[in-house]
Amino acid sequence: MPQVLVQLFRDRGRLRRLPYWLGLVLVAGCFALGIRVFETLQLGAGLRRSGLLACFAILLAWLAGRRLSDIGASPWIARVVIFASGAAPSVLYYLAMNDRVPLGIAITLTSAAMMFASACLLVLGLIPGGRGANRYGPTPEERKALANAARAFE
């Protein structure tokens, strides 16, 4: 289990499915805890919650990007999907409050954006990683074998 956490918090490289799922659970748990703290302490719904949501989006994009690296795809795909899905509700809310978009359409489009991002995160956790090294590095198993071989020569 500690090796899985080490893989999760590494700053680059590939991320296998188990650390990815653990990371999603950890990030979602921290987000839920943060929301609960804001509600309990009555810290307001404005800037503080927006900051928490931004941190949540950044962590999700980071996890999804590392997972895409394991599959062999560009991590930028995750960043675009997560941030577009996160920005869409803010823009639609602004437009709805200024009577430029009907509220029902804004809610429907916001729900669709969130469901799309959630589906993407789910699919990333189900797709097996690529076999062998790719442009984002060796597989975690190969990295471990290389580290053991390097220690043998010390």
Number of helices: 6
Mean pLDDT: 81
Overall shape: it is elongated
The stretches of 5 or more residues where confidence is low (pLDDT under 50) are none
Q: How much strand? A: under 5%
Q: What is Rg?
A: 19 Å
The helix/strand class is mainly alpha
Q: Give the helix level as a range of percent.
A: over 70%
Q: Can you count the beta strands?
A: 0
**Through-space gap between termini:** 27 Å
Q: Please describe the biggest sheet, giving its number of strands, its sense, and whether it closes into a barrel.
A: none
Element order: H for helix, E for strand: HHHHHH
Architecture blueprint of SSEs:
Elements: H1 2-8, H2 17-41, H3 47-71, H4 76-97, H5 103-126, H6 140-152
Can you walk me through this structure?
- The protein is mainly α.
- Helices cover 75% and strands 0% of the residues.
- It has helices spanning 2-8, 17-41, 47-71, 76-97, 103-126, 140-152.
- Helix 2 (17-41) runs antiparallel to helix 3 and helix 4 packs antiparallel against helix 5 (103-126).
- It is elongated.
- The mean pLDDT is 81.
